[in-house]
Amino acid sequence: MRAVGIISLLLLHFGYLQNVFSANVSSRPAVVNVGAIFSFNSTIGRVAKIAIEEAVKDVNSNSSVLPGTKLVVQMQNSNCSGFLGMLGAMQLMEADIVAVIGPQSSLVARMVLNLANELQVPFLSFAATDPSLSSLQFPFFVRTTQSDLYQMTAIAEIVDYYSWKEVIAIYLEDDYGRNGVAALEHALAARRCKVSYKAGIPPGSAFSRGDIMDILVKVALLESRVIVLHVNPDSGFMVFSVAQYLGMMANGHVWLATDWLSSVLDSFSPLPFDKMDLLQGVLVLRAHTPDSDRKRNFLSRWNKLSGGSFGVNSYGLYAYDSVWLLAHALDSFFNRGGIISFSNDSRLINLEGSDLHLDALSIFDGGSLLLNSILQSDLVGLTGPIKFDADRSLVLPAYDIINVIGTGFRRIGYWSNYSGLSTVPPETLYSRPPNRSSANQNLYSVVWPGETVIKPRGWVFPNNGKQLKIGVPIRVSYKEFVSQVQGTNNFKGFCIDVFTAAVNLLPYAVPYQFIPYGDGKKNPSYTELVESIAAGDLDGAVGDIAITTSRTKIVDFTQPYAASGLVAVAPFKKLNTGAWAFLRPFSRLMWGVTAASFLVVGIVVWILEHRINDEFRGSPRQQLKTILLFSLSTMFFSHRENTVSTLGRLVLIIWLFVVLIINSSYTASLTSLLTVQRLSSPIKGIATLKASNEPIGYQVGSFAEHYLIEEIGIPSSRLVALGSPEAYATALQNGPKKGGVAAVVDEQPYVELFLSSQCKFRIVGQEFTKSGWGFAFPRDSPLAVDMSTAILTLSENGDLQRIHDKWLQKSVCTSDTAEIESDRLHLKSFWGLFLIIGVVCFCALVIYFIQIMRQYFRTAPTESLSNGEGSSRSKRLHRLLLLIDEKKDPSKREPKRRKTERSSSDSVLETSPKRRQATEVDILPHNSRM
Question: For a FRET experiment, which of 26, 105, 327, 909 has its CA 20 to 30 Å from that of 242?
């Protein structure tokens, strides 16, 4: 009975589900009408028409999608016309369609999407790539292909990968072209590149070969040789034809075509020989569609579908997937209770007397629900995953990068928004962490226009006869570096020779003219010269221009061709050897610590030897004399007293080692002091200048003024501007007390040239900045890179040094071998030695006093018993001092085997009256000695 009950419940439940399913199916219409708007005769339209028709057949034959409902598509030919597209859309709206596949053109899309907003009909465009078509402005617009925003990002990353800085954009003068190039400009700017020139081609048939000729002639006169072509097939092939005629498809040029060309190549490959000959070396982007069994099956039956007249391109695949996306969304729409119904717009009904029959247009009541079903779709089509992100863009955008070679093309890599440029398919990289590092960006080799595999430089000097305006400072001092030839605009000097030598090494001609900069009365401001380049007044600057952080923010510099760190120059005086020259090797602190160490070591040895060594005993005066003579005599290793205790010998050995090092260092320093001429200056470097309040000189126009004020923190009131080497010498000779300066801070090349004829001054301290001179050019100028390579070549082959010797090799002062006062021997060079002897002395004393205290505590109980009473604190201290001063019995100290030797030596001591007297003293009672 229980089994029967369970079966009955299952039957009832099954019947309930069947009734629900039947009700759901019955709520679905038998036919769902959708529309399609595109250009039937275009490259994309021919493929899309077959793909849409085949997709509808596949949907209707698949029982798992829209069961019981037939999908019917009504197509309208927009012929790439906004007006015709609007009319076609209105005709579809009159037929109560629920969604539209299309439009194909971005121009048509912008015209009809306002109608979609009003009637709430979703538009699924498989080819409108204009990035400005946003879901905010057109909420019922769904892009089922990739936006040109990603395509232009891919182009920008290719440009950056090959280190090109400027591109020329040739585009179709409509929304598709203008907005695509705008996206390209933003993508390039994010990588410090730019579109240097834009040339628009009129859309439709409003252009001729002559118009293209005029555009490309202007392009040929420009500097950049990287051209991005964002047009349609008709105008694109005409551009390539004229470019070949003008020689712009030869070596040195780079052509990057957007996916309009890949659509043609995929649809009509192989192209006729004359057309393929125009495309040799061109790089082309194509929307990436991963390989799959479903895609291969569709491609295998495409030849039958098209009759072999053309192939399928990526837009045809997107059109096919758009139909399937809409079918799944309609299925979800019906499952969620959606009903196809339309209502009239009251605003259209009230239009009386109109012959347009606008009242036939109806609002789709379920438009919002269907739109949500579309955006929430998650399926896999021929083009890969079909899923939308928060911006209503397809997830995981990617492109193939192909290179046209011979009669076909070759894929050289991929671009994906996930990992950038790669030779690995994007779907493989999706399983790995994203890596956009430069080392991970790779492409295969490319055959460029002109049948070369060498990467084009990407720019040349323009062929319009324009010369580069190179600013050159007019110096009034140190003219060896740069100076103007009297009465001309020509210049000469070290910097000019380096520039001309570097230009001669370039593999191309550089037309330029020197532009004098400055009034000739004082050195110009080099910062203002650099700012003139950033403002576009000059194309570069040549001269002794220091490379500083602030300047590199507005211009680009070449590789430094000369070191130019800041140094300080000050007067000096010769050190007089004199009567007290022997004290100079050590500093005062060194002398003090050394003397104290001698005394401390003498006292320590006396303490360790006093109880057991007769030579360290006697009257207080005699013992003091012994300490002093012993400590001082160790300086010459001639001490007369012998040490007998182990601790005393240890301290003495370590101390003699220290004395050896000190004596050797003192001797070497004194020898150098007396044989090598020494120079002295109160200024030791930039730290001394900063700590003082004395005036400091600097060269007019140099960056030293800004550095001293902003970086060092020296008040501007202390700085004195000097305009010539003669002014340097006068100010330094006068000194602060006579209205001069304590020192001059300037760049090292100027200082070296100044000191070659001024022997009364020297560089003090170390170079406190690391900088160099370079040639300045505008930001991202490719000439700066090539000039840097040329300067490195000059340095490697020795030409740079020869130019330096030609202009800057001067006779040196006879006292050039003299040195500024070297550092004395300071305590910091010997503190380790003093630390060692200090530690040894301390440890020896600790061990010694431990031994004394042990002996004291052993004798204390005995004396207490003999006295019969406790000792006071003063008595205990007195007894400790007596124990320290007490002479230790030799018989208790020496081993038995040495007593015989000791007795034999006593006979020798008896022959010496002094020794005998000392012995007798030791035999006296303890109290009599004290």
Answer: 105
Spatial contact of 471 and 533, defined as CB atoms under 8 Å apart: yes
| CB-CB neighbours of 780 under 10 Å | 14
Contacts of 729 (CB under 8 A, 6+ apart): 758, 760, 761
C-beta separation of 230 from 170 below 8 A: yes
For residue 463, the model assigns a pLDDT of: 65
How do 555-557 and 776-778 pair as beta strands?
A: antiparallel
Cβ(145)–Cβ(126) under 8 Å? Answer: yes
**pTM of the predicted protein model:** 0.69
Rounded to an integer, what distance in angstroms lies between the CA atom of residue 235 and that of residue 261?
11
Calpha distance 106→230 (Å, rounded): 14
**Pairing between β-strand 772-773 and β-strand 562-563 as defined by DSSP bridges:** antiparallel
What was the pLDDT predicted at 748?
Answer: 87
Residue 854 phi, psi dihedral angles, 5° rounding = -65, -45
Q: 168, 181 in Cβ contact below 8 A?
A: no
Per-residue confidence (pLDDT) for residue 132, from 0 to 100: 92
DSSP at 582: G
Q: State which residues of the chain have pLDDT below 70.
A: 1-27, 345-360, 463-465, 573-582, 614, 638, 673-681, 810-826, 860-871, 883-930
d(CA 34, CA 102): 11
Give me 21's structure tokens: 């399913």
Q: What is the three-class DSSP state of 38?
A: strand
Say how many residues make up the chain. 930
Q: What is the DSSP letter of 98?
A: S
Residue 353 CB contacts under 8 Å (≥ 6 apart), including other chains? none
The reported pLDDT for the residue numbered 198 is 96
Asked whether the beta carbons of 694 and 742 are under 8 A apart, the reply is yes
Spatial separation of the C-alpha atoms in residues 110 and 556, rounded to whole Å: 43
Which backbone phi and psi does 165 adopt, to 5 degrees?
Answer: -115, -25
Work out the angle at residue 208's Cα, subtended by the Cα atoms of residues 203 and 211, and round it to the nearest 5 degrees. 90
Which phi and psi angles does 23 have, rounded to 5°?
-65, -40
Scanning the structure block, which residue is given the tokens 């039956």?
Answer: 301
Chain centroid offset of residue 381 CA = 41
Cβ atoms < 10 Å from Cβ of 668: 12
Residue 679 has what pLDDT? 56
Measure Cα distances from 287 to 131, 278, 338, 402, 838 in Å.
15, 23, 34, 11, 81
Q: Given this model, what pLDDT does residue 348 score? A: 55
826 touches 590 (CB < 8 A)? yes
The Cα 449–Cα 446 span in angstroms is 10
User: Distance of alpha carbon 907 from its chain centroid, rounded?
Assistant: 89
Strand partners, 483: 492
Q: Which residues contact 8 (CB under 8 A, 6 or more apart)?
A: none
Amino acid in position 349? I
Residue partners of 531: CB distance under 8 A and separation at least 6 = 554
Q: What is the dihedral of CA 88, 94, 95, 96, to 10 degrees?
A: 120
Concatenate the DSSP letters of all residues of 707-718 into one string.
IIIIII---GGG
Mark out the alpha helices in 401-508 (DSSP H runs).
426-429, 494-505
